[in-house]
Amino acid sequence: MSFRWEEWHGEKLGWTRRTFYVRKSDMLDRPSATSLSTGSFGPDLVSELLLGMRLVGVDYRRVELSPPFTYAFGEGDSRAKFLFLARGTITLRAPSGELHQMKAGDAALLPRGGRHLIGSSAEAPQPCADLATLPREPLCTQVSGIMDCAEKAGSAEERVLIFSACMDFDLGSMHPLVALMPEVMRVGTLLTRYPEILPMLEAMAREVHQGRAGYAGILARLADVVAASIVRAWVECGCGDATGWIAALRDPRLGRVLVALHRDPGRDWTLAELAKLMGASRSVFAERFLAVTGVPPLRYLTEMRMRLAAQWISKEGMPIDTAAHRLGYSSHAAFSRAFKRVTGYPPSQAPRAA
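Below the sequence we write its predicted structure tokens.
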């Protein structure tokens, strides 16, 4: 399923039109046909390695809260969360205790989920109730409305207005990047470098405030795209402390190897083939790969395969034998041993999507 929209930019940009195409299950553009054999590094390598990223909202909420307040959310839930603040100001407290001040028009992605607090200010009363305990009213499929005691505020304009999403966030074979991401990824820090995000935030604000027909569904799609844009911008800006990954991507020869592995994980790769692809001896290649990624090449390949297998089996319902075959295993027993070694449980015990 695809989504398309156009934006017209005014005099300062020469009245140009920009058209966006986004797939619901794949929130990043497909890479161009630039040849990897040239060894050049650019956005296409990032797109290639993030092509399997799935960041799709599964539960959305339009939340109105009357100050003063403090609410907890995300207790025991490791799924990603997305917040867009349409009206008012809030203080977001991460599990580490770090505080983030947000104002109207700001958005944040919480890639690892977990228990966070939102308050009308840093001094808002505690202890607090969980946001999930407030009554919910269905607005449309997957979107509900939540409001606390409205009589605490003099008017609707005094109430804080938030659009939030609980998201399935899966980077597939690049899943280790999630552990390296900040607890809170704010969009406000990206707008100078990525001004194209601003029109999407403005569109979200209009939809929240105007409440036009179908607004909840449009908000849900915009939230998916903004959250994916935050992840992509973080990668393109250097991945913060994830220096190994970005160093690999910026090393043209090693980048070719990584892209080849991710493109064809089921191939029977050998150390000699990978070294040849990089244009180095086996020893030099193995040392460089280990120094940059933190793991030996063939272990990296096995772990990547098993993360993909877990995704296919758990979330897509793929038969175990099919997953094993796609990843180059002719023996069910060998695949099961590798799967358990990486995940900690056999493939037959992998959780299945409801």
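The first strand starts at residue 2 and ends at 9.
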